[in-house]
Specification:
Elements: H1 2-19, E1 31-39, E2 42-43, E3 48-53, E4 61-64, E5 70-76, E6 81-92, E7 100-111, E8 118-127, E9 134-140, E10 154-159, E11 165-166, E12 171-175, E13 182-187, E14 199-200, E15 205-209, E16 230-233, E17 248-251, E18 266-272, E19 288-295, E20 324-327, H2 337-340, E21 341-344
Amino acid sequence: MVKKIYIFLFVLTLVFSNCFKEKPSQYDGVLTLIIYSEFEGKIIPFVPVTLETNDYNISTVAGITDSSGMVIFNDLPWAYYQVSGKSTIIAPSPHDSTKMDTFSVNGSEFISIDEDNLKIDTLNLIVSGAEPGLKINELYIGGAPCHSYWYDQYFELYNSSEDTVYLDGIVICRMGKMLANITYIFQFPGEPLTGKEYPVPPDSFVVLAIDAYDHTEYCSESIDLSNADWEFRNSMDYGDFDNPDVPNIENIEVGHHLDFLPSLGSDVILIADGSDVDYLDGMDIESVIDCVEYSSKPEHIKEIESELDRGFAGVGKEKYSGQSLERIAPGFDTNNSTLDFEIIPHPTPGYQHE
């Protein structure tokens, strides 16, 4: 009899543990959320707006602001929401105020709900690519959805400027606590600042693979990176895969024996112009080209100076889900990764998600 009770309790435990793996689809409470869309302090009508939450297993909610720039969402659960909007506007040209231009505008922010059942907030839109230049456009770092496979990680760069930029001598780093601490530092070949051997034309993507091979051979739900533009390489790591057809970004830290291995959950990735490679005393902020901090947890404590990134991307991203982090538009950058990035269902190496 005792043995039967133990078996019953064991089965019951399995049933309940499997139930709790799924996010709840039922909820208590009814909330009304009113969103106004603005651009530079002016109301913008007819903007498509979406609401997403990771607190419940519910679909994305969509709406469009009316002629007064307002959209109302009713019957929502109390949750932590990301509200996003994307549209086009006609406004005076920044180059000639007497002429009108068409601009793509985007906005994204997180909304915390209190005990009231009515919440009013404003979604501020900004022009896409407000700060042109070389950007970290995508970070695929969470792993593929099979066998805890994470060897298919990559970063994607994007040139959002109107001029050709050059990768010569640029360093890419995994940072520790603030700029004073560099965990990894790898460098492109060429002369920093002056070299012009490795161009990136305007509106171009560059894929930087941790290991540039076809990962679908080991995980069918992974991706083929054998045609990546660059591959991280540490000659001190004798087991590090090296695709002979893909140029290398080399480790330059003496005594470092690992490949470039970003964290699946939270980390800081930085690119700099290569004028400061004295990694023992950190990174000179003036040399930084772009910096992205990410974390899957909303209670994450910032690990990089706010001058470089005022937020962090990836809240709600799940490990080994095949999800990726990508800017909401190519090169879109407000120096706040909370707003600049979104979670996409699968990686898009070398192109932007729809």
